[in-house]
């Protein structure tokens, strides 16, 4: 689509319009208004016309308009992690860690080209309707996350491309290219962002004050920096986001070593650096390296941070005061602002839409057939088969009844992961299975919760207000419940409302900037302990008889459990005060009732006569994610404190196995789970990740053999939490496949419904100089009975390098073969494949010596063959 559109608009109509405008109107205007000039020249001219206060404002992520110069309001914060996030009617692709399992960077490019089309289309439509640029509906997207997923407890690891620097680099480069558009285009489609720079991968609970002072240069350059360097040098990424924590005593957003010496001096980066949201404020509130906002702002800008993000009270707006105090010079601010404004000119933000090709992308691209197919294709390629005893899979479509059990089986939002938009249509895993066999052959039961070992018997029908069942809800089209209400409604069922998909909470209630008061009474018949279960996105407070039981303001809905003891005959007035704020889609959920112990006996009785069970469990974005205020046993702040499958699910699986069932476990998670007991209780294990809007169809296609799985693990699956080190220890020793071997399922591992044989490789040369490449040719045969795809992997290790990685990925290639077919796969290893950190030179370089080249279909030694090459 991009190529056709670029040819149509960029090389045809728009060029003509551009030349016409150049010859007529622009001659009478100022240099910064002239699209014939370079973006940098235009930015320099504009800076010369700004006041110091205006300059500071333009360096905030929410930049105010400056009407006297025709500068529009602009927001730097939008997201495109696996679809244009925080927007409705967009395509939602699998989470990045799942897409990494495809090892398919070509498909990834097509996906992010589609995402950038949808981002532009959403933005264009928003402006056409008379709106102005706002957060999450802008042309700057803070994607991709190329941090190394070094510890499976990190809740945000799902946003990354796994634990390997090379795989992360390969995938990240294609993400940026797809988002930003052709390198030779006059205008960028979007501005991508490499985050979070650098050495960042949890824990969430301490990221605002954590100081990392034990990361040695070798691990910094071999593990934590390669993906950022690749995105800068190979993808020309236009933004880099600095992280929250300190590295060697300096906050990353005030760290001259990271932002100047490495990023700009070593790598030649010329674009802007943006702060993670609130990171500059952390200088004086958490890290205590600055005394106040004025000193923090000057420290950040002098180090190289150009745009500040914060929810409110920007330290960067104090930059004029910093100039007055002599902490920073106006010319230092100009240097940063030049990079900021150049980015806006690169987007065409100051030019008429008629000459910006991307401004012509229509709304018809949103979730179109091509994009839906891409989502399904990637979800299929992400499916990773970990276990298949006695070839239980694929299942027969004409066999006996099967049971579909588990907390994730019929959960659509779980499939979306985090940092997501809202799709037009989502296929749950249960729905996907229903496309393969009739409803009559399916026995469905949730079975158990994700974490809690109890189920809730709802008392919602016992609530009342003004003699009507349920809650009376009053709405205002402001955020403080002031003035005349715009609607009053009655809700008689458990509350579950969202503005996603442009759904109003009630007729006449705005989608943004509204508030509501929910009121009900409850008079219990018996004294007992009940629970409120629910949560909200926005400002939320639960009040019973004037007592506040829960109050928070949050950017996503995190289900919580609030126990409350009631006395028979006493009347309880229940209120919920809610307000939508901060551009997040409004969402609110609530149920109320009594918890009962899970009874697996009833479940087993329900499954009499059913031999095969598909159990769909794992985790969800409500458990693992970014800095969550709600925690559960085994979870803390969005991270995990152990990596076991939650006990309630483990017990349910054991009960099914003890009942003699054949159990297929579909594990949905954004991280590795210690599935050691599940390898015993389950006959087959399919790792499905968070597979996006078409994930349910992809799972069903694999379970029933309409798609032969080819996914490979982009992360190590450990045997138990005992193998993990201190979460805050960033040393790589004992972490990931590169520094440990005792894995349950190793990096690069994944089964197929056919068999592949890897022959003996040949090299085009066995001795080479430090700047030479080598080609590795590997025979591959499909020795099974059906077509399939193998992912051939090549790893390198320097012989006698006792402190270096055991092996590290340096090449891979997908190869699809029919049954009985053979081919030769050639993988190029550039000279940089043999580059490691040299302590004598204190830098990355290729040094003379012998290097082992491993090749096969996983990182496990038993799946690899070896040859050697000598560098002179």
UniProtKB/TrEMBL annotation:
Record bears the keyword Signal: yes
Keyword terms: Hydrolase, Signal
Cytoplasm recorded as keyword: no
Gene3D superfamilies: Glycoside hydrolase family 3 C-terminal domain, Glycoside hydrolase, family 3, N-terminal domain, Immunoglobulins
Domain PA14: 466-608
Signal peptide (residue range): 1-27
BP GO terms, sorted: arabinan catabolic process; xylan catabolic process
InterPro entries recorded: BXL (IPR044993), Fn3-like (IPR026891), GH (IPR017853), Glyco_hydro_3_C (IPR002772), Glyco_hydro_3_C_sf (IPR036881), Glyco_hydro_3_N (IPR001764), Glyco_hydro_3_N_sf (IPR036962), Ig-like_fold (IPR013783)
Coiled coil region boundaries: none
GO MF terms held by the record: alpha-L-arabinofuranosidase activity; beta-glucosidase activity; xylan 1,4-beta-xylosidase activity
Superkingdom in the source lineage: Bacteria
PROSITE patterns linked to this entry: PA14 (PS51820)
Family, similarity comment: Belongs to the glycosyl hydrolase 3 family.
Protein name per UniProt: Beta-glucosidase
Organism of origin: Paludibacter jiangxiensis
